[in-house]
Amino acid sequence: xxxxxxxxxATPDEIPALLALWARAARGTSxxxxxxxxxxxxxxxxxxxIVATPxxxxxxxxxxxxxxxxxxxxxxxRLAVDPGHRRRGIxxxxxxxxxxxxxxxxxRRADAMVLDDNALGHRTWQAAGYHPEPRWSRWVKPLPx
Length: 145
Hints:
Blueprint: E1 5-9, H1 15-25, H2 35-44, E2 49-54, E3 63-69, E4 74-81, H3 90-105, E5 110-112, H4 119-127
């Protein structure tokens, strides 16, 4: 299947379709899962949100991954594949593209945000060579708008 998909950077006009994909394919939501949040992400780093589309049909988004690079660390978010297109190598292709991006930018280790109760996500990340980091937990604080 992966020879029949194309990978490219998302565009701002796709934000509604990306949010819809995440609503049906991803577990959980974030405070930034809205049009303004995704638009800010793309404005700051236009290459960070990688989408998979069928080859020859760039308008249909089958999957996504956010490959964020802050100049020091490589962060992965929103690995999501449309439920009707899973188990075809799309997630693996998205992760490979993200890792290639990180290597080109000088990154040395990638981390992924995965919900503790997301068993499917755990299997996906583990199959890709990732493992939980038992030494720390993520601490968060919402900032005022």
